[in-house]
């Protein structure tokens, strides 16, 4: 009876990891060989692990990555892509997110920009950073909707609180000047308080032309470029079966 009550109290306190570990200990015949402090240490360790795993699952779900299973461990370093392993290892630790730096990934369509962006976002989630992923077209649609229904300030606040904001395929679709000014507000809110990762088919040197308004473009680039890691992808489209890596 006491055991059942203890489980109920652990779950009432939301200590599910400890509850699961206690149930497992009951099934282990040699558990009595451990003293009280050792058994308690195992329970606490399981609770910490359970909380970390649950937190990661929530962050990954909220991020809404286009490629949810992309990880840096599976990154393809073929020479034609122009990826530098040392640079990726710098990004792997996610210190750049903690330091509120940016990352700009450019390259032709199909060269794996989205995959790497999702992998870096996944790594940021592992390191405990709240992350949001938006295809640029979806972000601008969300801005239009938020402006129309009066929720724009709340939307700005939501994005400002993210440790990492990933904007994928920037410049791919035509966008009004008003939306680029709202995008500038997002970047300005995050400048010095959050990290931003942007992918684009257009080289950064062409972003003035993409944005259209020279003043707005200057302001956006000023907040993005100076402290940014730059990844410039080469090679042909990885969607072509002939260009897939040889796994044999």
Topology diagram in text:
Layout (H helix, E strand, L loop, with lengths): L1 H11 L3 H12 L8 H28 L21 H8 L2 H4 L3 E5 L6 H14 L4 E5 H14 L2 H9 L3 E5 L8 H14 L4 E6 L6 H5 L2 H11 L3 E5 L16
Parallel strand pairs: 1-4, 1-5, 2-3, 3-4
Helix pairs in contact: 1-2, 2-3, 3-6, 9-11
Description:
52% of the residues lie in helices and 10% in strands. It contains eleven helices and five strands; from the N terminus they run αααααβαβααβαβααβ. Strands 2-3-4-1-5 form a five-stranded parallel β-sheet. Helix 9 links the parallel strand 3 and strand 4 (195-200). Helix 2 (16-27) packs across helix 3 (36-63), helix 3 runs antiparallel to helix 6 and helix 9 (177-190) packs parallel to helix 11 (214-224). The radius of gyration is 23 Å and the shape is elongated. 31% of the residues are buried.
């Amino acid at each position: 009876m006491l055991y059942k009550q203890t489980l109920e109290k652990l779950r009432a306190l939301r200590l599910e990891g400890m509850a699961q570990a206690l149930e497992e200990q009951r099934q282990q015949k040699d558990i009595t060989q451990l003293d009280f402090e050792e058994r308690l240490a195992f329970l606490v360790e399981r609770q910490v692990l359970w909380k970390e795993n649950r937190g990661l699952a929530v962050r990954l779900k909220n991020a809404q990555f286009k490629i949810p299973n992309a990880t840096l461990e599976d990154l393809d370093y073929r020479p034609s892509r122009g990826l530098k392993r040392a640079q990726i290892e710098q990004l792997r630790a996610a210190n750049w997110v903690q330091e509120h730096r940016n990352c700009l990934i450019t390259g032709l369509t199909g060269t794996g920009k989205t995959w790497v962006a999702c992998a870096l976002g996944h790594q940021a989630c592992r390191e405990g950073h709240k992350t949001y992923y938006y295809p640029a077209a979806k972000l601008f649609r969300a801005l239009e909707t938020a402006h129309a229904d009066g929720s724009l300030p709340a939307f700005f606040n939501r994005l400002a609180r993210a440790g990492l904001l990933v904007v994928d395929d920037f410049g791919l679709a035509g966008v009004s000047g008003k939306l680029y000014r709202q995008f500038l507000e997002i970047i300005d809110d995050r400048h010095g308080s959050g990290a931003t990762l942007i992918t684009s088919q257009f080289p950064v040197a062409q972003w003035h032309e993409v944005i259209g308004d020279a003043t707005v473009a200057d302001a956006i680039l000023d907040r993005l470029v100076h402290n940014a890691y730059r990844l410039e992808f080469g090679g042909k489209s990885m969607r072509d079966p002939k260009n897939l890596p040889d796994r044999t």
